[in-house]
Amino acid sequence: MDEFLDLIAPYNLWNGNSLPMGFERRSYTDRLMKYTGNRLIKVLTGQRRVGKSYIMRQIAMELIDNGIPRENTLFINRELAAFDFIRRASDLNGLVDAYRRKFRPEGRIFIFIDEVQEIEAWERAINSMSQDYTVEIEIFISGSNSRLLSGELASLLSGRYVEFPIFPLSFSEYARIHDLPADRPTYLRYMTDGGLPELIHLPDKEVKERYLCGLRDSIMLKDIVKRYAIKDVGLLENLFAYLVNNASSMVSVTGIVNYIKSRGSKSSYDTVAAYLLYLQEAYLIHRSDRYNIAGKELLAGNFKAYINDQAYHNYLFPTARFGNGYLLEGIVYMELLRRGYKVNTGIIRDREVDFIATDERTTLYIQVAYMLTDESTAEREYASLECVNGIGERLLVTLDDFSFPTRNGIRHVQAWKLPALLDSMQDL
């Protein structure tokens, strides 16, 4: 393995090397840094190309700035051809041993492994390293499939890892990276551009469309088709298109099957349910199940699907019938997920509350509307929240130019001000 160290040297911080650091994402790095200095395995999960690699590099540089020698860090990125020789757990162990022999690092070693799921039986190697008390090793791993923490890994590492979901750029990050005020015009621009980091650097609509198309295809091929030996790739693509075009709307597996049949194709309930799960595991979509507020129970059947980033709709399916209110609803949903809320769709009496967002301290009931254009629209949107009077904090989020006064305990929030409000709530 010694011969491979020179091959991977350009991708490491040894000998004064510098690596691209990207846009500083303090909301993630600050949280991750709180968990350093121990043997807990730090697991970064999220869709491909949302910035997991950059965040790990930023962590490494912060550790170095705090006094850790550069030679005490090791970067392994299985997405790069230079690391193709690491195919299985034994290769990973061999590289770490060769690295230790060459550099003889003193003190704690920090190992960063990108797209770890590409290494066969990686769980065994990570488990062994994390428990080897003859050497101080701290491990950061990233993966693009939510099954990373299921099955054997969860059993092997029970209680010895902490997960950090990584999402596309938030509105606040988008405003900072463009050096724009966090106001309505910037929010409208964010609604169009999306938050996938690479889109920031692309020059025009055509290039962005090509990038999104390639990214979608890459995720489907690497994280779904190859992993699960998918036979009907066309069905998978059509299912994703259907979910993007019906994002923020109530759907069901049965309804999707019937839609597919109406288009002259065949599929089964089990196949559609499985493909839906695969899209979730690859972080292309998220599922919000219905929750009976009065009965305090989840309801089977219908659910809402939200896309991981609005750019998939805006650039891949821009002609689909898709109102701005649905787009705004999806962005608010992702804002809640970023902050660690568990999010469901509320049902009470004959009304729907867009989001019930809960964390260990609070419960929020949130209704989203593009604008309160007339009295009937306002009555409809407030009515849903009025049904949950007295249960928890209630917010009506819109893109209206002016703020409405609190009504029956329901606070109106302009969408671009929601991040700051959520910050204040979680800081209490």
Description:
The chain has helices at residues 2-8, 26-33, 52-65, 89-103, 122-131, 152-156, 171-177, 184-193, 205-228, 233-245, 253-262, 269-281, 311-316, 324-338, 375-386, 418-427, and strands spanning 41-45, 73-77, 109-114, 137-143, 161-165, 250-251, 285-292, 297-307, 342-348, 351-358, 363-368, 393-398, 410-414. It has two domains: 2-165, P-loop containing nucleotide triphosphate hydrolases (Rossmann fold, 3-Layer(aba) Sandwich), CATH 3.40.50; 171-427, TBP-interacting protein, N-terminal domain (Trna Endonuclease, Chain: A, domain 1). It has 428 residues and is α/β, with parallel strands linked by helices. Strands 6-8-7-9-10-11-12-13 form an eight-stranded mixed beta sheet, with helices on both faces. A five-stranded parallel beta sheet has the order 2-3-4-1-5, sandwiched between helices. It is built from 16 helices and 13 strands. Helix 10 crosses helix 12 (269-281). Helix content is 42%, strand content 19%. It is globular and about 75 Å long.
